[in-house]
Amino acid sequence: MVVQHNLTAMNANRQLGITTSAQAKSSEKLSSGYRINRAGDDAAGLTISEKMRSQIRGLDKASTNAEDGISLIQSAEGALNESHSILQRMNELAVQGANDTNQSIDRDAINQELNALTSELDRISETTQFNKQNLLDGTYQDKKLQVGANGGQSIGISIDKMDAKSLGLKDFNYAKGQNYTHYGTIVYEGTTYEYNNKLADSANKKAFTQAARETGKAAFTDDMIYYNAASGKYIVGSGKYDSREAAISGGKASLGAKYAASAAKAWSALKKDVAFSSETVGGFGSLTTMNVPRVDDYNMANASIQAIQGAINKVSIQRSALGALQNRLEHTVANLDTVSENTSAAESRIRDTDMADEMVSYSKNNILAQAGQSMLAQANQINQGVLSLLQ
Hints:
Layout: H1 7-32, H2 43-97, H3 104-127, E1 129-130, E2 133-134, E3 143-146, E4 154-157, E5 172-175, E6 178-183, E7 185-188, E8 191-194, H4 210-215, E9 224-228, E10 233-237, H5 244-249, H6 253-259, H7 263-274, E11 275-281, E12 287-290, H8 298-351, H9 355-382, H10 386-390
Antiparallel strand pairs: 1-2, 3-4, 5-12, 6-11, 7-8, 9-10
Helix pairs in contact: 1-9, 2-3, 2-8
């Protein structure tokens, strides 16, 4: 029997310390809900868990970024929807103004509304913003939407300039109408000259084909008739009477002798004899510039219709591109949310406490602690037997 070293009490105390430490850890896990509260709880699990947390938080923020991108696109597309409405009204006005039942006062009223609508297109382009950034003035180019938790995971977005000039509604060219005379058939010096509309060029009504030369039938022009020595035919030529004089004089001297002094006057006389009607052909005259869509006359209204319809197509193309990108971003958001959810589930298995399992451990350690305390008390009573020897 010894007094200095009560090994039974020491053993009971050591076991009680182990149980108490385990009980404290179980209590911490149950109260925090985490299986890993410090690196010592699971060093490898902590590393994996923190990496997953970085991914989860990045994915959640990327999803928010994509939703912000959708909001931006909706802002731009909403403005372009209004631009479409304006262009449709402008097209309606241009078609109305092309009708020659309108008087000048009617067309002035239409022009006034066209000018106002053109100005509104410019205003929409200049003032449409998202988060203080202009969207439709051509500055929103090569932008990136970060849609991933890692670097380089982005989607590009660019929006074209959508003002009136960029849509082709300012400083565009159109062709004026040109007076066009119809001619019949003339026989001169035994040769028949017949005006053929199919052989005439649609722009200036002067061209004639090789077939016309060979048959002696060619398009009449405002210049002269001359004799082509190579083909032996009289044809209608373009250009002034200068180098053609030798050709007229050679081979068929009768024509050259008769008109050599004044070929232009001769042609004018011939043309006058065979002309039977005239009309103004729209869109084939000289080019001129129109500052904004106007309907002053048929040709201007017709050119305005074409320009406005071209602008409608440009806006449609941009809206289609934005709509496709919006659909893509919506799928991106759905995918990011799914990946974040699955990664969170994996992180939870590593980091979170299984409450039922931990309660079993806590209950066990609680019982062991009570038993250890009881055994320690009894072990401390063992040395009391020494006192009986001292009596």
